[in-house]
Amino acid sequence: MKQRILIIGSGFAGMWSAISAARLAHLQGNTSLEIAVLAPEPTLYVRPRFYEANVSTLTADLQPLFTALNIRFIAGYASWIDERKKGVWYQATDTESVFISYDKLIIASGSRLRSPDIAGFAEYGFDIDQHDNAMRLENHLNALAKQPESLARNTVVVCGGGFTGIELATEMPSRLKALFGKDTDTKIVVVERGSAIGGRYSQALRDIITNASDELGIEWHLNSGVETIDKSGVTLQDGTRIETATVVWTAGVKASPLGENLVASRDASGRFVVTEQLQIPAYSDIFATGDMAHAKTDDNGNTALMSCQHAIQLGKYAGHNAVASLMGIKGLPYRQINYVTCLDLGAWGAVYTEGWDQQVKLVRQEAKKLKAAITGELIYPPKADRNVAFAAADPLAKFV
Question: Which parts of the sequence belong to the FAD/NAD(P)-binding domain (predicted)?
């Protein structure tokens, strides 16, 4: 009977899990192993770029790649993992629940924004966490361009001063001027609970974020939280009122709840605490990867972040190790020693850092060019060519 590796999710981790699994199976001469990806559609959504305009273009069709590598795609939403029967229940379009078995399972179902329990957010708030949400914000901004000029129309409030919030806030002046006219006075406000701009980052990186914010005219409300959102503005917990038609929430993500029936340790973000080979400890046939995995990157206490950078490598290791486990081959302990960041800062440029201590290496246009190469080329799927894809899927090949 044909053996199957089932991968749940077609994001960065899921896609690379499938390619890496296909690669090792090919290298081992195993032509009977089925590698299947279960996801709503064979599409990679380029989530790290959802702060940009033209969101509809930020996708990649995975079907040609899957076809070239003989990876089976199954359309559906995974709903339940039955570890005793070694299968997954999923909801296919216009059908009842369907059961599919696996020999090895890779959970790459990703993460979602933690929706805030704030009055008015559901009715009047926005986020850019998923493609539909980012499209909704873009459509809203396009509609504002047709409305009479006002302070509320020209003001955007970004809630959360992490990487997503910073990239969105620094991109907004250019986006609004492109929509409303280059001479329009716009106002961008970042509401941040922390006591410092970029407080969770290195001092060198904080200084650059502060400098870029000053040059772009971005206001920061520190030690602040949102109390309520309504049609015409936002009220902060200290009573400050900001007139705005656009409030965007960017703070905090949580791993998918899929697999909540499994007896396993999860971290504060809902990620499975996995072994070095990315297995869920009590389940030798189940791997977790990408935003679903709390995994050590090195021997210095660092763990993978919920980021594209880590999801890609985690996927490569998960796919490789799932096949290795199935075939009785020694797997590879996940390691990702090098850590870099490349933060887009809108018209100011960008900043590139290396190491967990975030040493600044490039700034402004030099960093901007690197950012464009990373997000416009490097993170996209490889060509639908077996040799090219398999070379890129080697877990031990250098990524950045």
Answer: 4-313
In angstroms, rounded to a whole number, what is the distance separating the alpha carbons of residues 323 and 178? 49
Q: Which residues of 273-307 are buried (b: 16+ CB within 10 A; e: fewer)?
A: bbbebbbbeebebbbbbbbbbbbbbeeeeeebbbe
190 lies in the same domain as 206: yes
User: Which residue's structure tokens are 């994001």?
Assistant: 11
Residue type, 353: T
Nearest to 159 by CA among 50, 49, 252, 250: 250
Q: What is the DSSP pairing of strand 241-243 with strand 233-236?
A: antiparallel
| Strand-pair category, 111-113 with 4-8 | unpaired
Q: Write down the pLDDT at residue 96.
A: 81
**Residue keyed to tokens 């499938």:** 18
Say how many Å lie between the first and final Cα of the chain, rounded.
40
- Is 144 a domain residue? yes
Residue 365 domain flag = no
- Mean of pLDDT values over 16-29: 98
Residue of 291, 290, 386, 276 whose CA lies nearest to 324: 276
What gap in Å lies between CA 126 and CA 249, rounded to an integer? 6
The position carrying tokens 């969105």 is: 168
Query: From the centroid of its chain, how far is CA 98?
Result: 28
Mean pLDDT within 244-257: 96
Tokens at 142, concatenated: 């396009």
Residue 347 domain-assigned (yes or no): no
pLDDT in tens, 139-152: 999 999 999 999 99
- Helix residue ranges per DSSP H, the chain: 12-27, 63-68, 121-124, 131-144, 163-180, 203-216, 308-327, 364-373, 386-392
- The boundaries of the domain holding residue 303 are 4-113+253-337+382-392
Cβ atoms of 231 and 124 closer than 8 Å: yes
Domains identified in the chain, total number: 2
Q: Residues with Cβ < 8 Å from 273, sequence gap 6 or more?
A: 264, 265, 266, 267, 281, 294
Distance CA 319, CA 382 (A): 16
Q: DSSP characters for 293-332? A: EE-B-SSSS-B--SSHHHHHHHHHHHHHHHHHHHHT----
pLDDT at 399: 57
